[in-house]
Amino acid sequence: MMLQSPLILQIPPSMQMTDEQLFDFCQVNSHLRIEKDRFGHLSIMSAIDDKIVNLNGSIFEQLRVWSQQHNVGVIFDVNTRFKLSTGANRLPYAAWMKLERWNTLSSAQKEWFIPTCPDFVVEIRFLNHNLQLIQEKMTEYMQEAEIKLGWLIDLQHRQVYIYYPDKLEECLDNPDTVSADPVLAGFILNTSSIWSLS
């Protein structure tokens, strides 16, 4: 069952998890999507079902094809965790990071919570999910020094919100395609195929 909003668990300061404990907690509950906000609250989100897999797969596959052609960065799927400068722990549906930034990370950092924000993130609003909560998450991303571009794909209204740091968001109504220029030069997402899956 898809939750309309994440289940928010407020953790008392005396019971805050270390990164190691949070990692273990997420591992034993791998059937759920668990994020931590900058206040230490845990968001328990819907499990990954077939619909999420298909939608995310369409976005990720298009990004993967572009990435292989250009070979200037690394792509990440819905299972990759990023630790932001605020301490928040996020799981974007898709992300991309410049290769030179990725290469500065140690092997251990690459296999655990990636201790930085990606250059590009994609979040998805599924039907009946709380739009404001996801918009707040996008605003959080845009406050990170490393971020260059973010997309919020709203399946309910067939809209795509475009986010850049220090700029007002832009909203596209029912676009057939969305361009990531100039951050991901030449990457154009075919959104019409995504609407057909929603």
UniProtKB/TrEMBL annotation:
Q: Which residues form the Putative restriction endonuclease domain?
A: 20-191
Determine the domain of life of the protein's source: Bacteria
> Which sequence ranges form a coiled-coil region, renumbered to this chain?
none
Q: Which organism is it from?
A: Anabaenopsis circularis NIES-21
Q: InterPro entries, alphabetically?
A: Nuclease_put_TT1808 (IPR012296), Restrct_endonuc-II-like (IPR011335), Uma2 (IPR008538)
What name appears for this protein in its UniProt entry? Putative restriction endonuclease domain-containing protein
A Pfam family of this chain = Uma2
